[in-house]
Specification:
This protein has 18 helices and eight strands. It is α+β, with helices and mostly antiparallel strands. α9 runs antiparallel to α10.
């Protein structure tokens, strides 16, 4: 954003500059690009190969051309120079240092001091620098993906979701980016989902729909059967139409329940009502399929010439909102249609909790967080007392929480998965990863 690139060369340079070798050259590169700083070269010969980078060493190649043009290296000897720099071989570097300085004096009429100044510019590249071809490949892909994201946002983000399928954490990050971009990401749907994530065209704005293969307990075989039947005979009209049209051994209680619980069959009725009727639905479908293919007396008392009556769903309590979200998390790996914490935001604000994403290395003192417990691992210490390693996540991020025995014993009932809590404690990062050492906790539902 600071550079404001105008050509592919700028993008390539950005890729190469953001590496340990030339990273300190970034401010000067930007200043020269924008005309705030004068373009200058450490030697007149350098303009030949540094003109496009405003006289600044950017690529590993720039070092090689410097050695060839100023110090008289040839292609064979400069490759040894490249290996010495790239692999940080001290003995070889000392040897090349001497060859380079002497070569600059011989081939470019430079003083030893001038040659040493140029050699000093090479030193940071021992920390790793990109060659130009490598940077150009990255730059091209960066430009193409940026173009796709800017001009075909839904299609691009859908492709990213499909590429990251299976990595729940990455999927969560991409969905958050979709939300920022105003692209709704919807749960699976029996009449519009395909195997992978799919763009659903909408007059107001495009949407992305979860694919059937993202549903736990639903294999490729049954997903293919559902999609093929839909393509052949049109959308499924109701739950009876769906279960009777799918002639596949993998349409069983487990797969149907997964479709119901993740929301793929929401247009056919309430999730809990459908769950209560699952076994009868499958028995009905089996009987109807058998009757139509073999022509025999039905278990429901009908002859082969009589149509089975339409299936009627038995009544049941509707699923609660939090139940639906927990099912989604279990079957899709994350909350999709909503997040349980959304209804707690006012209470969390009153608690003055710190967003977890704001907790970084160096955070000190007592910290207060609020979020949902998403993982619990209980262990027994050497003294025989239980303690817990858990994960608490809010809408911004998540953090590992360590609960020592004395804290656990004060409020053991609070430490259950899917419980929303407010916790107070300190941050520890001794082993390189942030951990929240809990001193006090209470379920948020207890807040008045």
């Amino acid at each position: 954003m600071e550079l404001r690139p105008t050509t592919i060369h700028d993008i390539n340079a950005m890729v190469a500059l953001y590496r340990p070798g030339p990273i300190n050259n970034i401010p000067e590169y930007i200043a020269r690009k924008q005309g705030r700083s004068k373009i200058k070269y450490f030697h007149p010969k350098a303009e030949k190969f540094l003109a496009k980078s405003y006289g600044i060493l950017v690529y590993q190649d720039d070092l090689l051309f410097t050695a060839m043009e100023l110090a008289g290296y040839n292609w064979e000897s400069v490759d040894k120079f490249r290996k010495a720099v790239g692999k940080k071989i001290p003995i070889e570097m000392a040897k090349q240092h001497e060859i380079f300085v002497q070569g600059c004096q011989t081939h470019s009429s430079m003083t030893k001091g001038e040659a040493e100044q140029i050699w000093n510019l090479f030193e940071p590249f021992q920390g790793y620098g990109f060659n130009k071809a490598h940077a150009a490949c990255y730059g091209r892909v960066a430009y193409q993906t940026a173009y796709m994201k800017a001009n075909f946002p839904a299609e691009y983000m859908c492709a990213v979701l499909t590429a990251e399928a299976g990595d729940t954490e990455k999927i969560s990050e991409v969905i958050a980016e979709c939300q920022r971009m105003g692209i709704p990401v919807l749960p699976p749907d029996i009449n519009s989902s395909f195997k992978d994530f799919t763009v659903i065209k909408n007059q107001q704005h495009d949407q992305i729909r979860f694919g059937l293969l993202t549903i736990k307990n639903l294999g490729e075989n049954i997903a293919d059967a559902i999609i093929a039947e839909r393509k052949t005979s049109g959308n499924y009209k109701d739950i009876e139409d769906f279960v009777t049209r799918i002639h596949n051994k993998d349409l069983n209680k487990k797969s149907v329940e997964s479709l119901i619980q993740c929301g793929a069959l929401d247009e056919f009725g309430d999730r809990n009502v459908l769950l209560v009727n699952t076994e009868n639905l499958l028995s009905y479908a089996k009987e109807k399929q058998k009757q139509s293919s073999m022509g025999q007396v039905s278990l429901f008392g009908n002859t082969d010439k009589t149509e089975l009556p339409a299936f009627r769903l038995s009544a049941a309590e509707p699923a609660k909102s939090w139940e639906k979200l927990i099912w989604e998390k279990e079957l899709l790996g994350l909350f999709v249609s909503d997040h349980p914490l959304n209804s707690y935001q006012i209470q969390l604000k009153l608690e003055n909790v710190v967003p977890i994403k704001n907790i970084v290395v160096g955070t000190s003192g007592t910290v207060k967080i609020g979020g949902m417990i998403t993982r619990i691992q209980k262990i027994v210490t050497k003294t025989g007392r239980p303690m817990i390693f858990s994960v608490v996540e809010d809408l911004t991020s998540k953090i590992e929480v360590v609960v020592f025995p004395n804290v656990l014993e004060k409020n053991p009932e609070a430490w259950k998965e899917n419980t929303v809590v407010v916790a107070r404690g300190k941050i520890n990062n001794r082993d390189g990863s942030l951990k929240f050492l809990c001193d006090e906790v209470r379920p948020l539902s207890m807040v008045a």
